[in-house]
Amino acid sequence: MSPRSLVLGLGLALLAGCGEQRPSFEPEKVNAAPLGKGLPRGFLLGASTASHQVEGGNENDWARWERASFPDGTPHIHDRSVSGPATDSWNRFDEDVKLMKRLGSNAYRFSVEWSRLEPTPGAWDSEAAARYRQWAQALRAQGIEPLVTLYHFTLPTWVAESGGWENPATLDAFERFAGRVADLLGGEVDWWCTINEPNVLAVFGYMDGVWPPGKKDTKAMATVLAHLIEAHARAARQLRTHDLVDADGDGKATLVGLAHHVRVFQPASGSTTDIAVAGLTDEFFNESVPNALRTGRISLSVPGSVSLRREVPGLKGSLDYFGLNYYSRDHVRQDASPSFSHKYVPAGYDTNDLGWELYPEGLYLLLKRYAAFGLPLVVTENGMDDRSGERRPYYLRSHLYAVEQAVAAGADVRGYFHWSLIDNFEWAEGYAPRFGLFRVDRSSPELVRQDTPAVETFREAARNLGLTPTP
Ligand code: GAL
User: Fold this and answer.
1) Domain 3-464 has CATH 3.20.20.80
2) What are the residue ranges spanned by the domains of the chain?
3) Is the CB of 196 under 6 A from ligand 1?
4) 391 near 384, Cβ under 8 Å?
5) Model confidence pLDDT, tens digit, residues 124-142
6) Which residues contact 380 (CB under 8 A, 6 or more apart)?
7) Would you say the CB of residue 50 lies under 6 angstroms from ligand 1?
């Protein structure tokens, strides 16, 4: 345990305790606040999706993983589903745009699927390319700002087979891909997200082994995390040199960001070890990526196994905004596992249907923390698995309230994207979770989309922001 981690842990404990004046998150306060009135002019209010989770019919490293099992026979996907047709958004994009209009949203975050655009090394599928271009044009024509993610967890099989993110050659291939996507969509797109959640991919894919490629190897995890950070820097350079068109006329042709998954790590007790382990976890999971982006230098350490430091050319200054994906808080107790910690939600806390704690105040705390970055912030994801749909209205209200409180406290937050527009394929959880503002009836051949009660809450926020939802 380094003295730095101890100090950080103690700092966090202080933050979680007394000290500064914090807004009240009592439900009466949240419900009484005029939803969306505290958001700044030009704020992007929308929903978020990712290619593999909605398009349907993708063949990539995930599709393969879905069909296979762990050595003991347990299927990789908890509910035994495969993504298959997903929500068929590849063919139903126009329907989805109508949903966005119904929400009154003025922005949409989606990702392009590398395996569709470049199905074999160096090839380029012009039909798929034309389709993505039509989408970007359709969104712009409807007054919806596209925010395009280049990489959201799925690799073409040819990339995965040649070592995926462990292989430095993947960085070259990804850099070329980024340049081509910028050429393709730059005329319509200004807001870009290079990589979604490098920390989640590294931990799930290479430490916990629950996502492809299913490794449990801390050194590989660190290599991959470093490569993803480097891939971001290289993609940012491509986006800035290839996309010179200011599509929305605000004076900026490219706004480059990365979507970073952040969580609150709450020491489970006042003991020095729990505080220190929560601090260590926070430092590794929340801070490694932003620290590298801030300084231009990757510095990763896992006591006893990893110590990786290197300067990355072009990393410093590679961001125009910082994207935060926020869902939940973990309570952390020290233990003897490889991560030194046991993360859990104590009994009696409010959770979503996957057991993740609902903690809107965490979004406020983390927005305030990352405001110190000195860059505009965008909430690139936030949402809950709510299978009844009844609890999402309050979730949405309380998290938008958190954004507004952070804005009132001086944070420069430019957008909020709800996860998700529609129920979709939730990775290792399959189709059981329901994160959509719109419910998808999977038993209907047309995969009918239906309003959940949170649609009305979203529309209220949109109207208060001066937007006009369609009836
Ligand atoms: C995020 C991920 C999304 C979505 C969401 C809810 O970590 O970026 O793709 O799956 O979690 O589970």
Assistant:
1) yes
2) 3-464
3) yes
4) yes
5) 999 999 999 999 999 999 9
6) 48, 109, 147, 193, 196, 257, 259, 323, 324, 325, 415, 417
7) yes
